[in-house]
């Protein structure tokens, strides 16, 4: 096992543990939980095997569903953002993504913010739409998506800044 694989496995385990043991119990203002476990999907290598990445993302969401008793909504949301990730990368980074030279740690705040925002909003729209699954509650879906996304984006950007790798 090489260093990058070990880093990805470690990141997966640490994010799952933090999410399950700490953040799932936050309930800021009664209903806001930051979902930072998706950092694993955000930081996955650009050149990862697409099928393997979809399976790993599904498993990540499934683990969240098992611990949160949420019936598959996290698995669906994670699989969808893993599938959508190349589109988000191409949209935000353009040619840098096409030539696989994107490193989140080397980017300016604007690009990092745009990428994180697109991915978090997509995840949360899917998550809360499936969780509530009733269009008569569209305002509740919008409210939970907006506020939880803002909370998650802020926490995610803080984590990315605090734990940035200095090796490049």
TrEMBL record:
It is found in: Cell membrane. Its main location: membrane. It is a multi-pass membrane protein. GO terms for biological process: regulation of cell shape. InterPro entries: Cell_shape_determining_MreD (IPR007227). Keywords: Cell membrane, Cell shape, Membrane, Transmembrane, Transmembrane helix. The keyword Transmembrane helix applies. GO terms for cellular component: plasma membrane. The chain crosses the membrane at residues 12-29, 35-63, 75-93, 113-133, 145-163. Belongs to the MreD family. This is Rod shape-determining protein MreD.
């Amino acid at each position: 096992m090489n260093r990058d694989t070990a880093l990805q496995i470690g990141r997966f385990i640490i994010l799952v543990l933090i999410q399950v043991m700490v953040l799932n119990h936050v309930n800021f203002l009664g209903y806001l939980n930051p979902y930072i476990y998706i950092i694993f999907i955000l930081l996955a290598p650009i050149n990862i095997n697409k099928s393997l990445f979809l399976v790993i993302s599904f498993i990540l969401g499934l683990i969240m569903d098992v611990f949160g008793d949420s019936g598959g909504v996290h698995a669906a949301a994670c699989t969808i953002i893993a599938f959508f990730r190349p589109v988000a990368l191409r949209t935000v980074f353009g040619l840098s993504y096409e030539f696989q030279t994107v490193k989140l740690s080397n980017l300016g705040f604007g690009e990092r913010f745009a990428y994180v925002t697109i991915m978090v909003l997509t995840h949360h729209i899917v998550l809360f739409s499936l969780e509530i699954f009733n269009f008569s509650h569209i305002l509740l879906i919008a409210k939970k998506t907006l506020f939880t996304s803002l909370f998650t984006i802020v926490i995610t950007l803080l984590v990315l800044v605090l734990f940035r790798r200095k090796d490049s």
